[in-house]
Amino acid sequence: MITMIAAAGEKNELGKDNGLLWHLPDDFKRFKEMTTSHYIIMGRKTFESFPKPLPNRTHLVITRNKTYAKPGAVVVHSMAEALQISENDSQPFIIGGGEIYKMGLPIADKIELTRVHGTFNDADTFFPEFSKEDWRLISEVEHDKDERHKFSFTYETWVRKEWV
Q1: Residue limits of the DHFR domain (predicted)?
Q2: Could you tell me what percentage of the chain is helix, strand and coil, using 3-state DSSP and rounding each to the nearest 5?
């Protein structure tokens, strides 16, 4: 099962200048719990936005740069190559950025989407639109604003309808 995991604003905003637009500690915790011990597929810019590789995950970095090499990254040059390398993982995760999500949408079986309740006009990266005709929402868990979270948000789990 190929899963895309993301946090996006009400208008599918993901980030700006290769960074996030919000700080949601509980969402980070959920991301860590879900992706630990799995392959995580990302673009070069997403990988370079991390201060260091995320522990207990295999980082597959898609880039067009044939000479790119970084410690902690398995460098690939296509989504197909990333999926081939991760084929023994029961649930590899596609974690971004925007272009990688666009590549992943046609092949993903599941979307774990944290819908951040706000709009962010200065965003420069977006999660791709997906058709509600092709996907079914199977779970929603709301999280209110609190002292650690400036925005309320909802964890949404979507599955491709053809698999349901």
Answers
A1: 1-160
A2: 20, 35, 45
Owning domain of residue 69: 3-163
For the chain, the first-to-last Cα distance in angstroms comes to 13
Amino acid of residue 41: I
Record the pTM. 0.95
Q: How far is it, in rounded angstroms, from Cα 159 to Cα 164?
A: 7
Q: What is the pLDDT of residues 7-50, one digit of tens each?
A: 999 999 999 998 889 999 999 999 999 999 999 999 999 999 99
Domain count, the chain: 1
The domain that holds 37 is classified in CATH as 3.40.430.10
**Residue 68 CA to chain centroid, in angstroms?**
22
Which 8-state DSSP code applies to residue 149?
A: B
Query: Burial, 127: exposed, middle or buried (Cβ in 10 Å; 0-12, 13-18, 19+)?
Result: buried
Residue with structure tokens 């392959």?
A: 39
Assigned token pair, 96? 């971004």
135: which 2 tokens? 């996907």
Q: What is the spatial distance between Cα 121 and Cα 13, in angstroms, rounded to a whole number?
A: 8
CA 86 to chain centre: 16
